[in-house]
Design a protein that fits this description.
Rossmann fold, Quinone Oxidoreductase, Chain A, domain 1, alpha/beta, ADH-like_C, six-stranded parallel β-sheet, Zn-ADH-like_protein
């Protein structure tokens, strides 16, 4: 097999494409021939040694992938050779083969293609856990999605619309705003045209008729957090999803008091670990929604696995709409 090896986590440039022995699955593992793997923000952090999980060196990055099972280890039940699966295991995806924990493999129903499957688990599980579980989103409520044209942002738009909510999507260009509209957003805010903090806050209030959003989905953090939170509605829920802009914001807690609002942490990975039955039910529902056409990953482009470094550069340029996927 071949894979992109991270032998020194100092950045993308240090990754090397190497031939390594194809492993055999141990107990509880399956060997997967990788057909597609998506690029997620943690994949950038992990090769820079900035992610909370620091794998032993050397390792193969690529947290999320889809492919075909080639071999099954001892004790594995419910999976078989030749079966199509998707998996989010944290590492191993940027290669031709990997060993995947059987417990983390999602069997793919007929019609679920590998490119979509490789871009599915992280963003839709995060957004479902955030909006449906943590925020208890109800039909008729209004959701403001920040960073709405990115991977988690596009999934949040689709899940909020499927739940019967009104969606206001905030993105950085007119082109990205148009994409958000095309996948269901009711209104958009181009935040480069609304200077932080006051203009952006006013744009949010105007888009909600002065009421403020019931739920704010924030995977961006940084300078957007406080003006967005100042615009939140009564009993609003502010979902802390991530910090793609870099800085971790500090919110004045008196704002939560004045709005009767909640600041809600969203950590899907630990939810999946601590509440596996609830997570499995969620993933089953999401797969059904995919089959019904209610959700579908927005794929910016699919590139050959050999062009991984180009994909990283595209992600760093913040020009990507939806997800980047590498294919074998």
């Amino acid at each position: 097999m071949h894979a992109w090896l991270c032998e020194n986590p100092v950045g993308v440039d240090a990754l090397t494409w190497k031939e390594i022995p194809t492993p055999q699955p141990g107990p509880g593992q399956v060997l997967v021939e990788i057909k597609a793997a998506s690029l997620n923000f943690p994949d950038l952090l992990i090769v820079q040694n900035k992610y909370q999980i620091k794998p032993p060196l050397p390792f193969v990055p690529g947290s999320e992938y889809a492919g075909v099972i080639q071999a099954v280890g001892e004790g594995v039940e419910g999976l078989k050779v030749g079966q199509n699966i998707a998996c989010l295991s944290g590492t191993g995806g940027f290669g031709t083969h990997t060993l995947a924990p059987a417990a983390l493999c999602m069997p793919l129903p007929d019609g679920f293609n590998h490119v979509d499957a490789a871009a599915f688990i992280m963003i839709y599980a995060t957004s479902w856990h955030a909006l449906i579980d943590r925020a208890q989103l109800k039909a008729g409520e209004t959701v403001l999605v920040l960073g709405a044209a990115g991977g988690v942002g596009t999934s949040a738009i689709q899940i909020a619309k499927a739940a019967g909510a009104k969606v206001i999507a905030a993105a950085s260009t007119d082109e990205k705003c148009a994409l958000c509209k095309s996948i269901g957003a009711d209104e958009t805010i181009n935040y480069t045209a609304h200077a932080l903090p006051n203009d952006f806050r006013e744009a949010v209030k105007q888009a909600t008729g002065g009421k403020g959003p019931d739920v704010i989905y924030d995977p961006v953090g940084g300078d957007f957090a406080e003006p967005a939170f100042r615009a939140i509605g009564w009993r609003g829920r502010y979902l802390v999803v991530g910090f793609a802009s870099g800085p971790i914001p500090s919110l004045p807690l008196n704002l939560a008091l004045l709005k009767g609002a909640s600041i809600v942490g969203v950590f899907w990975g630990d939810f999946a670990r601590r509440e596996p039955k609830a997570n499995a039910q969620m993933m089953q529902q999401l797969a059904q929604w995919y089959g019904q056409g209610k959700v579908k990953p927005v794929i910016d482009r699919a590139l050959p696995m050999a062009q991984l470094k180009e994909a990283y550069a595209l992600m760093g340029s913040r020009s990507v709409k939806g997800k980047l996927v590498m294919t074998n």
